[in-house]
Fold Gnk2-homologous domain-containing protein.
Amino acid sequence: MGSSRLLIFFILPILLVLDPLAPAIADDQNSHTLCTERADYCWSCSNANNTINNGSIYKQNLNSLLSSFPSNAQINSRFYNFSLGQAPNTGNAIAVCRGDVALKDCLTCFKDSVSILLQNCTSTNEQEAIIWAQRCTVRYSTVSILGVLEDEPVLYLKSPRNASNAELYNQVLNPLFKNLSEKATAGNSVSKFAAGHALVPVTNQTIYATVQCSPDLDKQNCSNCLEESISDIRKCCVGVEGARVLKPSCYLRFESNPFYEPGADTLINLPGEQGNNTSGNKPSNITTKVSPPSFFRLVLSLCLLSAFAFL
């Protein structure tokens, strides 16, 4: 009996850690999404678009287009878009750098991101893809994507650390993002980006946050994309110290430590009565989805615990 108990105590922790903290990815049977270990790069490849007539021609156009990114003389800003080839085999690409990043670092991010896409998406004939890096986003498609609002695929990345006071943290987070979103949507055709921090009362914590839209979006579409992303926090990331909501047309991020360039930082003074409107920050009737492997491990763990009770 003693050996059985020891065996259970040995197996149970292994079962519980077999399902490590991982990004929450929106369901899409036509795409696959992967991240590097520290989520410095996350990419999603898809075969959702079936309009191309000759895959080899499209692939040639796309490879030529993406391969030209690192040396293209037209890339003189943080936003770049280009098309190559004739429809329906046209390769369309957009690259957006984070608004606070120096141009030379943007070009490095574009180069590294394109390399990952060429290895993981174009090599398997995926027709459209996106990669979210820490400093930039690169995407391509067979159809025109310039100025088009696209909110899928969506990727949620959250910190494993919980806020010390989730209620106060969330009361600050929502108005902080709304303030930054107003600044970002007021941007121009080159940059729609805002960064800043706000103080959490009582706990003396600081929330650092950024929001950004692809600058080819008009003001209304940018606002819509960011508003939806802010509401998505309730689905994935309530009560944690940091998270990212990543979409093709916009993204947002918040952390308890600075993660952007100091020159972009601004103290956001929020209204004193931050707690009066908190209903939008609290989860209500949220359904949690459990994958089959996770469910199996959960059931097996409970069975082992029950067996232990009778030993």
